[in-house]
Write a structure and sequence with these properties.
alpha/beta, Alkaline Phosphatase, subunit A, 8-stranded mixed β-sheet, 4-stranded antiparallel β-sheet, 19 strands, 16% strand, globular
């Protein structure tokens, strides 16, 4: 039997519960008691459901939601962003039907923090899911459980990788849930900085491989079966989130996809000699992943394989769209495509994520269906909390008032005053970093290195740091940052938490 102990609230109104060392430690941090919250939310569920109609002829909803979330998709690698090589006809198909959000950001450019923040509706520093280590696990309300308590049928397929195990989260259905095994990633030390010894061998992770998409094929087929057999039988609105692993590394593909990009094993336009490539955090990440050992041949192969993985993901979107049409569900369903974070793809000599540069922290976001104008392109910066808020609006449910985000349906095409925030506290850098985007300006505020300010209209590649040249803009964005959090306090809290994780891993 597990024994847990409730302690008094501490800084940030968190409640800590510890499980004895014999069964491993489990940390439950609640800014709001989950059971109490769900019981309260359920009180209004009956009346809320009674006021809704599931008729497909309703112009006001509620509507169903299907979200396809890939993993590690660079926001610029698709035909809708006019990439010269990427073959993504189904993303273009979805964009014609709906709206492209050109400046969408993830909550944090790392798997577990990004997915946990999206699921819980809270920022990463609020839920303290800083990295991919899950030696401690948390108990928070999440959109699946909150919607389910209000009469919405919530389904999650595939990769989960969040702050707790799938069985605890309260979705109506969990299909092929991909939980990360405890204790998760162990290479989390920031001070001293952990180096992943042997990481340079990842550079060989590309090329033709037999059955490279076996796991994702199973996930997509499960979602297709659910849409065909279960969705038409439901009387209540539903949400279906489908998670696939591609185009995440390694970049193995089928022979057909490898040959499709036979002319596209190119090199990044901006390499490790750029000023931005030599920022201390960029150097940290290259050292952490040993990416400076990658050869030109390996870089070309990785980039070629990545394009094939993107096209594979696009084809899965097409399969889901086809099934919605076949099952006569598409008119009453909102369809979204996004990813959990980007991929540097060798830019500045950096690979994968973990950076607040655009290629890593921005994400593709295309949404079609009722409430989303066909062919529209929104320049206003948004983030994935706004996507989660859109789910609640679509099904006509009440969203917790302390959650972050505004429904995408309510965001204007061009709002230069809107502020977007992201943050990074994970592996590979010496300390925390924070992003503030407002209009064309972007501040990256570093806890332990010089800050960066970019004008993304004149400098979309982030090559010229204007922090010293534009002090008024810098101060304005810093003010917005401090209205969200104290960067110094949150860096300290993150470091203290990481040290507790390291002690737990060591068995102390």
């Amino acid at each position: 039997m597990r024994a847990s102990h409730r302690l008094a609230p501490t800084e940030g109104d968190h409640l800590f519960g510890l499980i004895p060392k014999g069964e491993g430690r489990k940390l439950l941090l609640n800014s709001l008691d989950r059971r109490q919250f769900l019981q309260t939310a359920a009180l209004g569920a009956a009346s809320a459901v009674a006021c809704r109609t599931t008729s497909s002829n309703s112009d006001e909803g509620p509507f169903n939601i299907l979200v396809l979330k890939s993993d590690e998709h660079n926001p610029l690698v698709s035909s809708i962003q006019e990439h010269p090589a990427a073959v993504t006809p189904n993303m273009a198909r979805l964009a014609r039907r709906g709206t492209v959000f050109e400046n969408a950001y993830c909550p944090s450019p790392l798997c577990m923090p990004s997915r946990s923040a999206y699921l819980s509706g809270r920022r990463v520093h609020q839920i303290q899911t800083y990295n991919n280590c899950n030696v401690f696990q948390f108990d928070y309300p999440n959109y699946g459980s909150v919607l389910s308590s209000q009469g919405v049928h919530t389904v999650h397929v595939g990769k989960l990788d969040v702050y707790n195990q799938a069985s605890t989260l309260g979705f109506s259905e969990m299909i092929l849930a991909g939980d990360r095994k405890q204790p998760g990633d162990l290479n989390i030390s920031r001070n001293p900085l952990t180096i992943r010894e042997g990481a340079a061998e990842r550079a060989n992770g590309y090329g033709v491989k037999e059955n490279p998409f076996q796991g994702d094929n199973r996930r997509i087929q499960s979602a297709l079966d659910w849409l065909e057999k279960t969705a038409p039988t439901l009387d209540e609105p539903w949400t279906l989130e489908v998670n696939i692993s591609k185009p995440h590394f390694p970049h193995y593909v089928s022979e057909e996809l490898w040959e499709l990009y036979s002319k596209w094993g190119d090199l990044p336009r901006h390499g490790p000699k750029e000023e931005s490539a030599n920022h201390p955090y960029a150097r940290d990440l290259r050292a952490h992943f040993e990416t400076e050992q990658f050869t030109e041949s390996q870089i070309r192969g990785l980039r070629r394989g990545y394009l094939g993985c993107v096209t594979y993901a696009d084809r899965q979107l097409g399969r889901l769209l086809d099934m919605l049409e076949k099952a006569a569900l598409i008119k009453n369903t909102i369809i979204a495509y996004t990813t959990d974070h980007g991929e540097m793809l060798g830019k500045f000599g950096m690979w994968w994520k973990c950076s607040l540069y655009e290629d890593s922290v921005r994400v593709p976001l295309i949404v079609a269906g009722p409430g989303f104008e066909p062919g529209r392109r929104v320049k206003t910066p948004v983030d994935q909390h706004d996507l989660q808020a859109a789910l609640f609006k679509a099904v006509g449910a009440e969203r917790p008032s302390n959650w972050t985000g505004v429904p995408l349906q309510d965001i204007p095409v061009n709002d230069p005053g809107r502020v977007i925030f992201s943050e990074y506290h994970g592996h590979g850098t010496r300390a925390s970093a924070y992003l503030v985007r407002k209009g064309n300006w972007k501040l990256i505020y570093y806890a332990a290195a010089p800050h960066q300010l970019f004008n993304l209209e004149s400098d979309p590649e982030e090559l010229e740091n204007l922090a010293q040249k534009r002090p008024q803009i810098f101060k304005e964005l810093e003010r917005h940052l401090r209205q969200i959090c104290s960067p110094e306090d949150e860096n300290r809290r993150a470091e203290e938490f990481i040290q507790r994780q390291l002690k737990a891993i060591a068995g102390d």
